[in-house]
Amino acid sequence: MGNQKNIWISALVLVAFLQKVSGLSNTQVCNPGRVSDTIHNYGAKTINGTQYIPFSHYAGKHVLIVNVATY
Ligand SMILES: *[C@@H]1O[C@H](CO)[C@@H](O)[C@H](O)[C@H]1NC(C)=O
After folding, report:
1. Cβ within 8 Å of residue 44, ≥6 positions away
2. Tell me, what's the pLDDT at 66?
3. How many whole angstroms from 44 Cα to the centroid of ligand 1?
4. Residue 4 maps to a domain
5. Structurally, how many domains does the chain consist of?
6. Model-level pTM?
7. Ligand 1 test: best mutation among 45, 47, 48, 57, most atoms within 8 Å of CB?
8. What is the pLDDT of residues 31-52, one digit of tens each?
């Protein structure tokens, strides 16, 4: 359980850092106290879209999540 919490905290810190560095003014406040789910319940497609990788495959490992999405 401690590792799951650390992954969430690391991801949130990374997002906050990137928003600060990028100088984006269109930011949203994230309240980690309201997060009741775990990242292990999610996954993502590979960049070529052919495979779905569940994040649970990385349970217990250090993971760096980089969100490169635009909107
Ligand atoms: C798509 O990406 C996966 C993961 O990197 C790789 O195993 C697979 O061979 C790739 N497929 C194609 C068609 O490039």
Report:
1. 52, 53, 55
2. 86
3. 13
4. yes
5. 1
6. 0.48
7. 48
8. 777 778 888 999 999 989 999 9
